[in-house]
Amino acid sequence: MVSLSPAKLVINPSPIFISNPTPQNPFFFFFPICSPNSPFFKSKFSSSISCLPKATNVTTSSSTHQEEEEELQVLSAVRSKHNDIVIVDTPNSRMLLLDSTHNVHSILNKGLQKWTGSYWDEFASLPAIVPKGPIAIYGLGGGTAAHLMLDLWPSLQLEGWEIDDILIDKARDYFGLSDLEKHTQGGGILDVRVGDVLSPSENVSGKYAGIVIDLFSEGKVLAELQEVETWLKLNDRLLPDGRFIVNCGGIGRESDETGHQKSMDDAWIQNSTIQTLMEAFPEKVSWKRMPERNGENFLALTGPLPDLTIWSSSVPGPLSENVKQWKLCESSS
């Protein structure tokens, strides 16, 4: 999950929004880019949306807009028991927006490019530092991370969990999820599971080599993940030397009780989920933060800090440099 706001867009630095809800159309959506240079657009919700690809005030004349318009299309907008689900198509990608915040939970690039430039890419570095065995994704969404992980690690056995069966149906229709449910040439596959992954009935010991955790509701990390007991129970599901890699969202608080601004080295203290992880696994949590242009999400990794040189040489593409940014959680106080 990445957050959108009128001030910035975290997948790409181009905030786009829809406003002016009506009784027939009671949604207020924030949409991501339709081109890298698009600053924003404003329109009523419809099946076809115009995007301004240049820095243009939304009050510019309609004739100017027509010259600069690039069309987006809302492919599906439904409400399930768990989510408001909106799927948006752009010339270069397709995006999944969820719940009342309409944050972006998945993106699928068109063509052969699977890199997103956001936190989903970071999840694909996990197989290089965990023992051999299945890897779970808690919070599968549209399958963005699963697409890249199976592309880079074609023998990987993935188990993807999602609580919303309607969302999974939409992901199969619009995000190619069903393709991942077939064996790759390397024997890898995604096994999709629908249900509450935090249910005690799923507490099976030693099942996974690693778990990717991307669990959000209404734009916030699930409340259960702010409890130490939850993490200790989830840890039992890991094989020896297994790890979690976690999307911890954004800042929980800007400063400590004294109002002192934290240094860059202990900026993780601003994030409540990482604080909880540190309570559960003292001295065995590492962190990094995505750049502003890519969302500023905090990420956490459990277990000893890997040898970054070896890790870097074990992963392809941009991950080779990205993994060098991980740091052990340490407080300067």
From TrEMBL:
Entry superkingdom: Eukaryota
GO terms under biological process: methylation
Keywords per UniProt: Methyltransferase, Transferase
Keyword Zinc included in the entry's annotation: no
Keyword Metal-binding: no
InterPro entries, sorted: Lys/N-term_MeTrsfase_sf, SAM-dependent_MTases_sf
UniProt-recorded Gene Ontology molecular function terms: methyltransferase activity
Protein family according to the UniProt entry: Belongs to the methyltransferase superfamily.
The name this protein goes by in its record: S-adenosyl-L-methionine-dependent methyltransferase
Organism of origin: Acer negundo
